[in-house]
Specification:
With 235 residues, the chain is of the alpha/beta class. The chain has 11 helices and 12 strands.
């Protein structure tokens, strides 16, 4: 299982939100490059970066910070948040980002995302509230079931799906494993769980369920998860 530590960027700082609400942002670090290096030293292979400002405003807003992390880290990096056109995808890949996460656009323009996945390393984010896809930085819910959307990408070139139960995100109340498995079964694509990790017990449950990957954020920042131990177990 791939454990992917997360840095969510808001106004150039590393923050975490609760249930995707921007006014719930708690600042954890002003030095995001140093934070990335810490994850690397602990044994991470990948880093999950989200431009929160970009997610809400519909275009990249923390590009310089992301570029700075890329220049100062040998981690593989995936980036999401406000990426809704080919130009933005290419801009990130040109600075050395390894793959790009498409969220809202993956709901609104499936054909476009499938075309992009033929040309570039693309991951899609499927975020759900009560089983229905959430968009626009989770500010809105659509009328599309998350599993229905996952099926749309079943035979595409998309590299992975990151699925988030928004009700779990930032709560450290346990991962929605059933939801993650439902997305994997619907898509037959490498599926990464996101939201709800609290401690090493959650990592063990994910490993038992044979989940492909998991994103870890608040549990690390709040000190409830020993990330080094998690990396050791997941090897």
């Amino acid at each position: 299982m791939e454990i992917i530590p997360a840095i969510d960027l808001k106004d150039k700082k590393a923050v975490r939100l609760t249930k995707g609400l921007m006014d719930s942002a708690k600042i954890y670090s002003n030095d995001v490059v140093d934070l990335a290096k810490k994850f690397e030293d602990m044994g991470a292979n990948w880093l999950h970066l989200v431009d929160l400002n970009g997610a809400f405003e519909g275009e990249p807003k923390n590009f310089d910070q992301i570029e700075n992390i890329r220049k100062n880290s040998s981690l593989k990096i995936e980036v999401g948040g406000g990426i809704r056109d080919e130009e933005s995808i290419k801009r990130y890949l040109d600075i050395g980002v390894n793959r790009v996460i498409l969220g809202s656009i993956a709901v609104k323009n499936i054909d476009f995302v499938k075309e992009m996945a033929k040309k570039y390393p693309i991951v899609i984010g499927i975020d759900a509230k009560d089983g229905y896809v959430a968009v626009e930085g989770w500010a809105k819910s659509s009328k599309i079931k998350a599993t229905t959307l996952a099926k749309e990408y079943a035979k595409s070139k998309v590299e992975a799906i990151i699925c988030t139960d928004v009700s779990k995100d930032g709560t450290m109340s346990g991962v929605n494993i059933d939801f993650t498995l439902a997305i994997k079964n619907a898509s037959n694509i490498f599926t990464i769980a996101s939201g709800g990790v609290r401690d090493i017990k959650d990592i063990k449950k994910l490993l038992e369920a044979k989940i492909d990957g998991v994103i870890v954020g608040k549990a690390f920042y709040e000190g409830t998860l020993d990330l080094k131990e998690a990396f050791r177990l997941a090897k």
